[in-house]
Amino acid sequence: MEEIVRLRKHGASIAVIEMADRAGRNTFTPALVGGLGVALQRIDADADVKVVVIHGFDAIFCAGGTLEELLTLAEHKTTFDAHEFYRALLDCKWPVVAAMQGHALGGGLVFGLYADLVVLSQESIYAANFMKYGFTPGMGATLVLPMKLGAGLAAEMMFSAKGFHGGALRERGVGFPITPRAETIPAALKLAEELAEKPAGALRMLKQALNRPLIAALPEAVAQEKAMHEASFAEPDIAARIASRFGR
């Protein structure tokens, strides 16, 4: 059976997580979410780790919620913050570099942007496509996207639900390195190597300091997003809209 989440070491102090759910196309399947949880637990227990790099496979970084998950949300059977998985990279005690070498859609984009450093691919598509399905963004998107991408671009991405190639994001002034896809993971590993040269304690303190505004503001943003979900998922035929547009 193919391993869904692979964990390896790059040198002594860099942990590398590969999301490789080919059957699920790196959507938030139980196997992917569970595998990521196990990998992060192993990293937390490794006394040598100081930096984490996470990436996807081929042309996919992370495609967000599964159809089943979105329909479960629409039926009010769960909420996106039920297990706080969405903020796993933020809660990791070590700096995380997200090598977003492939497409990142919806919750998959938000998930990656919780990393401390991000490298994008110029060929890949990045989309906050929640509104395509008729419901408002979740997972802290209304806070994280403006903080990481800028208010104007984040608003356009969320309202329009359209995808942007990495090259287009470069033209819009996104402050992340944007490389050809083949160079995205190597560029992220180089960043991680630079971080790994620093003392572990200083890395942890700086991560905490830089993320303090996000951590402080996140509960209010999540509460507001959950309230909007209650309303938007109550719209007529929302489940049919999700089912008809999923994967398109």
Automatic annotation (TrEMBL):
Family membership, please give it: Belongs to the enoyl-CoA hydratase/isomerase family.
Keyword Ribonucleoprotein in annotation:
no
One biological process term in Gene Ontology = fatty acid beta-oxidation
PANTHER family according to UniProt: 1,2-EPOXYPHENYLACETYL-COA ISOMERASE (PTHR11941:SF133), ENOYL-COA HYDRATASE-RELATED (PTHR11941)
Q: What is this protein called?
A: PtzG
The record's section on InterPro entries has:
ClpP/crotonase-like_dom_sf, Enoyl-CoA_hyd/isom_CS, Enoyl-CoA_hydra/iso
Pfam families assigned: ECH_1
- Taxonomically, which superkingdom? Bacteria
Q: Which GO terms describe its molecular function?
A: catalytic activity
What keywords does the record list, in alphabetical order? Plasmid
